Amino acid sequence: MSQFDFQSYLCTSLVLYIFSYVSYYLLSPGIGNKEKFLQMRRFLPCALVAALPASLAGFNLFSSIFFLPLTTGLLWCFTFPALYYINKHKTTTFFTWHFDFAFGLYIIAWLSSLEILFSGHGFISYFWAILVSITEFFLLLIVLFELFYYIIYQTVISENGLMVLIETHMLEVKEYLTGLPITLVLAASIIVTGMLTYIFYFNLIIMALPLMSKLSNTGLVIMIILLCYLTFYLWRPVPEKGLFARTGLIELYIDVKNYISSASLYKEHHLSHLKELSVSTNMNKLSSPHTIILVIGESASRTLMSAFTTLKVNTTPWLKEHATDEDFFLFSHAYTCWGQTVPSLERALTEFNQYNDKTFNKSFSIIDIAKKAGYTTWWYSNQGYLGSSATPVTLVAQSSDISRWTLQDANVKQYDSALLDYLKKIPTNRNNFIVLHLKGSHYNYQSRYPKSFAKFGNPSKYNVVDNYNNSICYTDYILQEIQQYAAENMNLHSMVYFSDHGDVPNRRRQPDFSGFGGLRIPLFVYLSAEYKKMFPDTARALRNNTDKYFTNDLIYELMCGLLQVKSGNYDSKNSIATEDYKWSRETLRTNLGKTLLTEDTTEDNKV
Ligand SMILES: [Zn+2]
User: Fold this and answer.
1) What are the tens digits of pLDDT across the range 315-364?
2) What residues have their beta carbon closer than 5 A to ion ligand 1?
C-alpha cells in the first residue's frame, strides 16, 4: 500500500488550478469582476478533485499511467473555448465557457478513478478497459471533430453548421466526405485509427496492473464515493443536465435539436392556419411608402430611466427631452408579464397572454398581422439565435420576410449600433414593418456599450450600477438614432419601444418571483404628425391612457391598434391604443398570471 503524498497532491492541484484558471481568464473576453471571482472559487474544487484519485493511489497525476485521462481532460478544457476565442473575440463583446474547463478537470478525476478502481482484476479489468477506451475515444473524437471543422471552414462550429449536420442524411455525408481534399480525409483516417489503437493498447496494459491494491481502505471508500458522485454530476441526462451537457459544443447540439423539434411544431400549425387569419386595415390612408418600427429592449428598468422618474442621474437624456412632446407617449405604469426573456416575449409578440388560454405554438404573431396588413416585415436582432433563451423568439422572427442576426455576420461588432447599419440598408420603396431586437442592458452590462460611451463612472472600472446606467444611456442613444433616422429617411409613422423585462443591477438574478424591481419596464410610442391627424382617436386614446397600467403581454394588441387592424384575432379591449382599453391596476397581473399588480406597493419608492 502506498502513502498519500499530501505535498505532491497540493502541488499538482495548484498547477492544474493556475493553468486552467489563467487560460479561462485569457479566453473569456468581457467578463466582469463578479464572474472572475466566482470562477476563481469554482475552479479550485475542480482542480483538487482532478488530482485526487492519482494521489490516493500513491501516484502523481503527471506520471505516464494517467496520460490518457489527463490529455482527454485538458483537451476538453481548452479546445472549444480556444477555437471560439480565436474566431469570435474581435466581434463578440462577452462570452465565457467555464463549464468546458470544469468538465475537463472533473473528467480527469472520473477517468483516472475508473482506471484505478477496475485495474488488476483479470478478465473483468479487460472488460472495463474496453469501456474506458470507448469513452475516451468518443470524447477525443469530439475534440478532433472541432479541430477538423475549424481547419476546413476556418470557423468554430456554429448553430448553422450543426443544423446542417443534424439534418443531413448519411448518404449526403458520404457524398460530402468524398468531396473533401484527399490528404485531409487520409490524415483524419490515420489520426482516428491511430488514436483508437493507442487508446485500447494503453488501457489494456495499464488496467492489467494492480493499481487498486495500492489504495488504503479510506482511499478506496473516498474513491468509490467520488466516482459515484462524478458519474451523476457529469452525465446526468437532459433536462436536468449534467456538466457534459453544459459544455459549449454539447449545449449547442442540444439547443439545435430542440430548435428543430419546436420549429417543426410552430411551423406546422402556422403554415396550415395562416390562410385563416383575416386582417383589414385602413393604414393606406397614410402617405406611402411608410415605416412602422417596434424596438424590443432588454433588461431595461423603467424606474432606473430618468425619462420615467425623477432620478438625479440622467440615464435617458434623449427620451427625457421628448417626454412631454406631443408626438411621444410615455407610459408611466408598464410592467412585464415575467422577468425572463422568452416567457415574456412569447406573450408580447403573439395573441397568447396571461389572460387567455391560448398557447404560443397556436397563436398568431404581430409579424403575421403586419404581413396580412400589407407590410414587408423585417427583423434584425442583436440577441442569441438558439437555445432556451432565444428559440421561440427566433421562430417568430423567422416568419418575417427578412430576418438577420448580428452574430451571423462575422465582421459585425455586436453592440446595438450594428442594428442601425442594418436599418439604413432597408429599401424605402414599400411599406415596412421593422422589428429591432436590442441586447440593451443584458448582463454583462459593461459589454453592452463601447468604452467611449461610458458616461457614468470610470470606463475601465467594474461597478454594476455605473455600468448598468451606461448601458441604459447607450440604449437611449440607439433609440434616438433609430427614431431620427427613420423619421428623416423612412417616412416613419409610428415607433414603439418596450423592454422584455427589467433588472435590478446590484442584486443577483433570481429564477423565482422576488419583488417588482425587475418587472417595471419602459414603454413609449411615437406617432408622426400625419398619423395623429389621420387617426386622432388613436392619438387621443394613447394620451388618455399614458397613466394607465399595462403588462407587456398586451404589446400584440397595442401594435394591432397602431396598425388600425380589424380582425377576429384582435380584441381592441386589450389595446392601450384604444378608448376601449379595459385593464387597470386592479385587474392586471404579472409573474405569469400569479401576482396582481396591486401587490406592488413600492412602485413610487423606485426599488
Ligand atoms: Zn431578457
Assistant:
1) 999 999 999 999 999 999 999 999 989 899 999 999 999 999 998 888 99
2) 298, 341, 500
Q: Say if residue 436 is in the same domain as residue 331.
A: yes
Q: Tell me the CA distances in angstroms from 40 to 11, 17, 100, 342, one per residue in order.
A: 17, 9, 15, 31
Distance 9 CA to ligand 1 centre (A): 44
Residue type, 437: H
Q: How far is the CA of 389 from the centre of ligand 1 (A)?
A: 8
The reported pLDDT for the residue numbered 607 is: 41
Q: Which three cell numbers stand for residue 133?
A: 477506451
Give distance in angstroms: CA of 301 to centre of ligand 1: 11
Ligand 1 centroid – CA 577 distance (Å): 25
Whether 65 is covered by a domain: the verdict is yes
What's the CATH code of the domain at 306?
Answer: 3.40.720.10
The answer to whether 360 touches 368, Cβ cutoff 8 Å, is no
Determine phi and psi for 332, rounding to 5 degrees: -90, -10
Distances (CA, A) of 244 to 66, 137, 385, 444: 21, 15, 22, 24
Q: Does 388 reside within a domain?
A: yes
Q: Could you report the per-residue pLDDT of 411-449, keeping only the tens digit for each?
A: 777 899 999 999 999 999 999 999 999 999 998 898 899
Domain residue limits at 317: 290-605
How many angstroms separate the alpha carbon of residue 297 from the centre of ligand 1?
8
Number of domains forming the structure of the chain = 2
Residues 422 and 571 in one domain: yes
Alpha helices in 497-554 (DSSP H): 529-534, 536-545
Residues 73, 104 contacting (CB under 8 angstroms) = yes
Ligand 1 mean position, distance from CA 343 (Å): 9
What is the Å distance from ligand 1's center to 178 Cα? 44
Lowest mean pLDDT among 160-164, 190-194, 504-508: 160-164
Give the distance (Å) from ligand 1 centre to CA of residue 338. 10
Q: Cα of 597 to ligand 1 centre, how many Å? A: 20
Question: 509 C-alpha vs ligand 1 centroid, how far in Å?
Answer: 11
Strands (E), 450-600: 492-499, 523-527, 549-551, 565-567, 589-590, 595-596
Q: What's the CA gap between 1 and 24, in Å, rounded? A: 37
Say how many Å lie between the CA of residue 372 and the centre of ligand 1. 28
- Boundary of a domain, candidates 257, 277, 305: 257
Distance of CA 61 from the midpoint of ligand 1 (Å): 44
